Amino acid sequence: MNGSGVPLAAFVTAMLAAGLVAAVPLVLAALGEAVGEKSGLLNLGIEGMMLAGAFFGFLAAFQTGSAVLGVLGGIAAGAVLGLVFAALTVSLRVDQVLVGLAITIFGGGLTAFLYRDIFGGQNPSLNVDAPRIAIPLLSRIPVAGPAMFNQGVLFYLAFALVPAFAFVLARTRFGLQVRAVGEYPFAADAAGVDVTRTRYLAALIAGSMAGLAGAFLAVADLKIFQVGMTVGMGFIALALTMVGGWNPYRILLASVLFGLLRSLGNGLQILGIDVRTEFITMLPYIGIMIALAILAGRTSIPAALGIPYARGRR
Amino acid sequence: MTRGALVPSRFAPVLTSLAAIVAAMILGGVFLAMRGKDPLAAYGMLFSRGLGTSYGITETLIRMAPLLIVSAGLLISLRAGVWNIGIDGQLMVGALFAGVVASAVAGQIANPLMWLAAALAGMGGGLLWALVPAILRVRWGLNEIITTLMMNYVALNVTSWLVKGPVKDPNVVPPQTRLIPQEMRLPDIAGSGVHIGLLVGLVVVLLVSVLFRNTVVGFMLDILGRNRQAAIHAGMPVNRLTLVALLASGALAGLAGANDILGVKGLFQGNWNPGYGFAAFALVYLARLHSLWIIPFAYFLSFLAIGGEMMARPLGIPTYFVEMLEGLMLLCFAVATYFERIRSPFGRAEEIETGPATAGEPPGPLVGDPVFEPVARSAGGRP
Q1: Which residues of A touch B327 (CB under 8 A)?
Q2: How confident is the model over A125-148, as a mean pLDDT?
Q3: Which CATH number fits domain A8-121+149-295: 2.60.40, 3.30.1760, 1.10.3470, 3.40.1710?
Q4: Minimal Cα distance from B133: which residue of A?
Q5: Which residue of B95, B152, B176, B364 is surrounded by the most CB atoms within 10 Å?
Q6: Which residues does chain B have within 8 Å of residue A82's beta carbon, measured at their own beta carbons?
Q7: What ipTM was reported for this prediction?
Q8: pLDDT score recorded for residue B9
Q9: Chain A stretch 257-276, residues whose beta carbon is closer than 8 A to a beta carbon of chain B
Q10: Which domains does chain B have, with CATH numbers?
Q11: How confident is the model at residue B1 (pLDDT cuts 50, 70, 90)?
């Protein structure tokens, strides 16, 4: 059946778990990005914000020995860069792609510089406990149970945030304001919505979520920091946001599919099935492009996405 | 508002960049000081070793060659309002193609012919990689920001697979193409230690300059970048121009890859990615999307990278400091363009006329605004 003698059920469980865990940072970052984009902000700085979240989360956890403080540190780092993004694109009305890429370059350079400067040639790992919580009964479901219901706190939080974001965007006053300033800020402004404030808040949420995603990687999942450890996950989250059509549930679906495809590659290798890993690894990226091509024209893009707003100028 | 002459100096845009660079270096110095390093000593060594030693100058000139080519290509796409963020992938595929072709024909045909073949292969590889996002953009209206980014990761995997299998040098263990012997690589410019790829880079920049100054295609690309609606109204072949912009910048990225293979490395290794893409992005913006200004700024950024490496060991400052500095420069540049805009007597009026302000540069495409969007609908005009 398989070369390595691993029982199939355990193998499927492990692969499922790996795929879901891989989806967590993507879901977190993409949810934040969705709020930002719904408000009209295209944030290419998400990669740099994730790295900042990963590094400062790691640093805080390393210094204090507390995983909670680490995660908070990561969120704070992402939030600060989110504010920088908002200040430049909303207040100064500079091009969003330019500012986003600048933040990504800066975030990569800053975290790599500080990590090497503080830790020298060493690559310490965190000695914090991020306990797994097994949910009674559910975690005993064969195969899927251990993968889905025996995980860390942030894992559950990521999936719980999906309906929360969907509710906020669709059903609350703030969500309506976000959507309004992203569709037609002139009308929103005329109706009394503070466009600047709404976009700042959206950028803050996008930054914090990217920071949280990075902190999940470094503090909860891997317990180490590596230079450039996000390896493009921020950009992938950006793409998944679009694939998911800015809808939290579809974003979740897209992220989980992406994560499972990723873990499938590793899984087939372990099983000893001779497939070039490279082909499997690149499948999700090609999948994103195909999905975007299929969905092109079927999703409604926030009309004011990428466009700065200045009162009285249209 | 009324400060400054009505007709701004030709150097005014570059002064904004210089101000941004100075501000970024001051901020970078603050970071150094906070980490307990002496910023003055660091910058002193950076400049004295990077600019004042023959090793520094030679290495800077060698590094400059691919950067010039990549940036000239990126300039074409940005001037046309097309975001090619897939430079790295296009460069990798171009480098691999060049490495394979060069090692296949090396020694069998005259060296100059071999270089030409490898350069063409590199350009073909880069072009091929830009073709996918270009078609997706023109045919399905997919925004090229996402697709070019995704193609980077596909390139990483495809090149890694190719050098492990089909095009691997069977005589060595590590995944790489066959080595081109030293004597068959690009020769130095008259005993300077700098290979002639630098001249290729300078020629490419000049050609791109001619493209935008003297040709109809360059003019149309400029119009497309400045005002897409105007280009559509004027009946310009918007789709074809978009295609040209992306393919040209992809081909030049591939040529830059070939340049590194033929001039410096001699072979393509798995997972080799010099990451010129982001540097080129900073460079082209600091050069204010002006072709000839690319040359001094390419020298400056190359010098920073080399100087950063040279000061790293003696002062214990990680080389990543330079990468951070590049990010800071781009951030400061973004701020500087704002002040430039509000000080300009035309700035505000322009903003009203042409819609939302970008960084004082030709605006990028509206996200998700499909190029192929029926002209009839576009002609109706967006709000």
Answers
A1: 48, 102-110
A2: 75
A3: 1.10.3470
A4: A289
A5: B95
A6: none
A7: 0.91
A8: 67
A9: 276
A10: 12-181+192-365 (1.10.3470)
A11: very low
